[in-house]
Target: Transglutaminase
Amino acid sequence: MITLRIAHRTTYRYRHPVSLNPHRLMLRPRESRDLRLISSEVTITPPATLTWSQDVFGNSVAVATFSNTADTLVIDSVAQLQLADDPWPIFDLEVRAMTYPFRYADDEQTDLGALMFQQYLDPTGRLRDWAWAFVRGVQTDTLALLKDLSAGVSLWIRYQSREDEGVQSPVETLDRGWGSCRDFAVLFVEAARCLGFGARIVSGYLFVAEGLKGSADAGSTHAWAEVYAPGAGWITFDPTNRSVGGQNLVPVAVARDLRQAMPVSGSFVGASDAFLGLSVEVAVTAEA
Model:
C-alpha cells in the first residue's frame, strides 16, 4: 500500500460579482478493497452549504449552495488515502468467460443494463468495424482481446492534452487520430460495448510515474475504463498508458457516460461577459 495526498483546487473568476447557482461536486475518492480513504475535506470560498448524497452508481456527490454573490469561486479538495500498489494483478475469470465470445448470465445482463449499449452514434459502422478487427478468430482469449483493444487505442490514436471541456465522439477520435485521456477512455469503452461487453467510464486521479501520459506536475485528473468480466468483476484498463489494473489510479466516480462524472459543474447568473476564466491545480503526492 502507498499513502497519497491529493490536493485539487478549482478557481472560477468573474469580471464582477455574480450570483452562483448550485454546483455539483464529485471529488471524494471511491473506497474499495484497494483504496482506503483516511480523510477527505472540501473547502469553498465564498462559504457554501454542502449537501452530500450518492448517485445511482454509488459515487459520493456534494451539492454546494450559495447565499452571497462573488467575483471569485474557489473549491479546494484535500484527500489522504492508501492505495494498493500491485503492478501485476491476477484476474480469475469464470470458465465460461475465459473465451470470447461468451454470454453474460441473465441477471448480469439485467444489472449491467445501459452499460452494454453504445452512447454515441456510429451510423456507418466505423467504430464497430474498428473494434471487431481486434477479434482474432471464432474463439479468442477474453483477457487477451481486451488487452489488445486497450493497446490498440494508443497505437491508433496520438495522445494530446486538451484544455477545452467535453469529449470527442469515438468516430471523431478515430477520424482525427488524436485525443486526450478522456477521448481514449470513451473510445475504448464504446469499442468494448460494440463487442458485447459491459463497460463504464472512470474519472479520478493519476499518480505520476515515469513515462505515464495524462499527468502534469505532481499528478493530474485522469480518465480510464472498467470492463465487467464474470468471476473477476470490474477490470481496470487505462488505454492512455496501455496498463491493466489500478496501480497509480485513484477512482473518484464511475459512470455510463463521462459527462456524469465531471469533478465540478455549475452555473452563475450575471452578464454574458462576466466569466473571465477557470484554472485547475492538482497535486498527487506520496507520503512517507
About this structure: The CA atoms of residues 217 and 283 lie 7 Å apart.
